[in-house]
Amino acid sequence: MTFVIRKFDQAQTLGEKLKAMRREANFTLSEMEQKSKIRKAFIKAFEEGAYDQLPAPIYARNYLKTYVKILGGDVSYFLNQFEEERGTCDFVSSARLPRRRTRALQFLVASKFVKVGTLLLISFAVLGYVGVQLKAIAAPPDLLVYEPNDGVLTDHALITVTGHAEEGSQVLINGETVLLSTNGFFETQVALERGVNVITIESTKRYSRPAVEHRHVVLEQDRSISLAN
């Protein structure tokens, strides 16, 4: 291979030198693509210094060797300049970067922010949903006590306690389990002692806090006993 010795302006970039050599050889981009079997996009990338648009370095070097050999240039000279420019292109100020590369970087950064923002929104939504579900699970079950009223007076030693509890819950009255009907109603009798009696009605469900109601019932003393005393 005979190399043509050319004098280049040292301020010229690799791409400017390659373009000048191609034009001097009267090759269009399409003709150079056909002759070198290198894609036109890669040829333009070399000539415009858009190294980020080239394939992996090992392939880019081989393409450059082929390109320079066809134009009769010094392969070592151009490979050295390629390595110098490619090695420092990441440190070039943004003002000197090709616009397409700058836009690509901006797009990548924006895409990352969008992805992170989307993930955060999804995470907050999931956490919010889980929080609502946990709150619903931990909430005490519904409990209504129909009878007796709080503070009632009676002279009967037994009093009937009735009410309604949430389906699937367990009802305890003064610590004793009371069976629920299929509709959630319950009814039982509680023995009273003379004086003030506290009846505790408690409804519990798995993983939830208990619902508790208290009824104060006063069993009056028998008047005949009081008079005898």
TrEMBL record:
CDD domains: HTH_XRE. One of its GO terms (molecular function) is DNA binding. InterPro entries: Bact_Cytoskel_RodZ (IPR050400), Cro/C1-type_HTH (IPR001387), Ig-like_fold (IPR013783), Lambda_DNA-bd_dom_sf (IPR010982). The chain crosses the membrane at residues 107-132. This is HTH cro/C1-type domain-containing protein. Keywords: Membrane, Transmembrane, Transmembrane helix. Gene3D superfamilies: Immunoglobulins (2.60.40.10), lambda repressor-like DNA-binding domains (1.10.260.40). It comes from Candidatus Uhrbacteria bacterium CG_4_9_14_3_um_filter_50_9. It comes from the Bacteria. The lineage of its organism: Bacteria, Candidatus Uhriibacteriota. It holds the Pfam family HTH_25.
